[in-house]
Specification:
Length: 90
């Protein structure tokens, strides 16, 4: 299956965030789900990736409450995906 340029860019960015933990959480989710995300959720993903690595990590791990601007179906799915990982890693 070939991916469009937008999906390729988001996949690359999510796997090369700058923090290994975020690479794992965001990149794993993107690798598994990027092909099926609707355009609105791709836009949500791009907005999330524009945030600082530390903020993203804190939100995804629940250390800090998710701000309203990122409380959407994409981020909730990302959090659920990582909470369900069988290896127990964030």
């Amino acid at each position: 299956m070939t991916m469009d340029a937008k999906r390729k860019k988001i996949l690359f960015q999510s796997q090369h965030c700058g923090m290994k933990e975020n690479d794992f959480m965001l990149g794993g989710f993107a690798a598994a789900r990027i092909a099926d995300l609707p355009d609105a959720q791709l836009a949500d993903f791009e907005r999330l990736l524009a945030e600082s690595d530390n903020d993203i990590y804190d939100w995804l791990t629940g250390r800090v409450q998710l701000p309203a601007r990122h409380d959407n179906a994409l981020v909730r799915a990302l959090i659920a995906y990582n909470n369900a990982r069988p290896d127990g890693t964030p």
